[in-house]
Structure formats: structure tokens, C-alpha cells
Request: fold
Amino acid sequence: MQFGVEQKETVILDPRHNMRRKVIASEIRTDPLTGRTARICHFMALQWQKPDFERLIAGTEKRCPFCPEHVLRVTPCFPEDLVPEGRMISGDMVLFPNIAPYDALSAVESMGERHFIPMTEFSADHIASAFRLAMTFFRNIHNRNHPESVYHLINWNYMPASGSSLIHPHLQVFVTSAAPNLMRQELNASKAYMDANGSNFWDDLLKREMEYGVRYLGQIGRTHWLSAYAPLGVAGDVLAVVEGVHSTLQLNEEDLQHLSEGLKRAMTAYDTMGIYSFNMNFFTGSTADAHMRFHLLFSPRTFFNEALGTPDVGALRNLYNESLCMAYPEEINTMIKPYFQ
Reply:
């Protein structure tokens, strides 16, 4: 297992210091599994100014399809052969088919009645309840022997910087036989690693990171939390790997609670930096993929320029698919680790 890195230096004459010569370090890191590269560069203080939330959300509830006065009136239903009751409901959470689907079995889950929930006000129990309803949907589809029931995914885009077009908290929930790009690369690379080494990459990664320590955050149940070595996000990523689990369908009630508790801690930690938006995705194998370990990735999102709405994804990431992180992951780890102790 190689944690590849190429160290770079840029020399400038700095106008802020009378054109004095200045050397700026950066790195290109190689992900130890897929070989994907990430640039550690464009350094800046990891501190952002939050917007005026009252102004941001004002009036958005009037036409929100997920608010309780609308959700059962304007959202579609599943065919009876998939979900006999049309929608799945648990408490004030509602799961229904996506009217603009991403796949053959693409659902949306409204995470309750509240139109706006600040990032620090999500409880672990609330998140776990939302995951539990999605798992009910997954098992319903799987028990019907549906041909799409191979990978069971949850995506969470929270607040506009993440790509969310609605303020109301919701999950993207889908079942698919086609693994998304990065997940497919991880599945193929994990199998190649096991074939070559006779061991599971994810198990070996955890051993290495626990021993090394500078990116390891902690353990909750059988869920291990760490800072990603080659992050996708500009403020780093938090990775959670569940011991001995290679498929979403193998997660138990305790796993869901522990994943939710870790997410709550990550959200609280990043809130102190002024970050109020994130993406969260499940990465999973099929029930037969013993070379895989279920993991989720939490990636904070922000604007480079809040006033202009400048996103944190530019041409480098969007067209080259080359990510950048504006601080060393090991330094970010020291900022968020206290929340996992």
C-alpha cells in the first residue's frame, strides 16, 4: 500500500512584501487504492463567514414540495408492484419516487417536517431514523428480487453549496445495478488488491491509519473514522469504514446509529470553521463483494466567493477530475479530532 506524494515548490516575488522572494510548497498526492490524484495547494485559512440564514431561507417554504402541507399532495407515488402503499412513511419522514430520477429506482426522502435545520441541530437519532427508512426501502426492493437490487446508495446534498436546490433537508436514495464512476473504480481496485495481496484493502488501510495516527479520528462501535489522504473536498473529507461489512444491506441498527453519531460529530466540527454545507455518499459493494468494505464519505462544501456564489468546484475538478484541498489533511485532522474523542 503506497501513499504516493510528489512535492512541488512555486517561487514568486511577493508584492505584499516589497517583491521579496517567496517559496510556496504544494503536493500532488496519489490515492493508495485507485491512483486518483489530489492537489494539496491554494492554501488559505479554513475559516468562512456564514450567511444570514434568515435572509437565505426567507420565503423558500412557500413552494417547498417537502413541507408537510405539500409533501403528500405534490410528490409522486411508486407503482403498486414496488411499494403497494405508494410512498413509505415513518413518523414525519416520507420517501417517494424522484420525479426527475437518476436511475430506474430513484427515490427522495424528506427528512421530516422542519423546513430548515441548521447543521449543528441534527441529532444522531434524527439522521439514523432517516437512514432506517431508506433501509426499509432497500430491503423491500431486494426482497422482490428486483434486477436493480445490486448497490444500495444514499446521497445527501445539504444546503445550496452542495448542489442542493432546496433548503428542506432530504436524501437521494437509489437502488442500481450500475455503480457510479468512483465507486466502480474502488470496487475494481479493491478486488485487484485482494487478488494480489490476499487481504482486504480496507482492513489493511485501517490498520495502517490506526498505527500511523495522523489521519485517524476514532472508532464508534465497529465504525472507524479518519481524514482522507487524498481528499475530494477543498476542506478535506471524513471517511467512515465499517468493519466486516461489504454491502449496505449488511448494516445493522447499531451501525446506522454509529454512522449517524459520527456524522453529527463531523458536522459539529466543520461548523466551527464557518462551513454549513456538505455532500455525503454511501460507497458499497454488492452482497457478494467480500473485497469491499462499506464506507461513507463526508465532504464539506463551501463557496470560494459567497457574494458572487462562486462554487468550490472549478475547471480543475470539473473537467480534469482533479481535486484540490486548501490545507494538509493531517492539519485538518487536528482541528476535528477533538470532536471524535
Q: What stands out?
A: The longest strand covers residues 4-14.
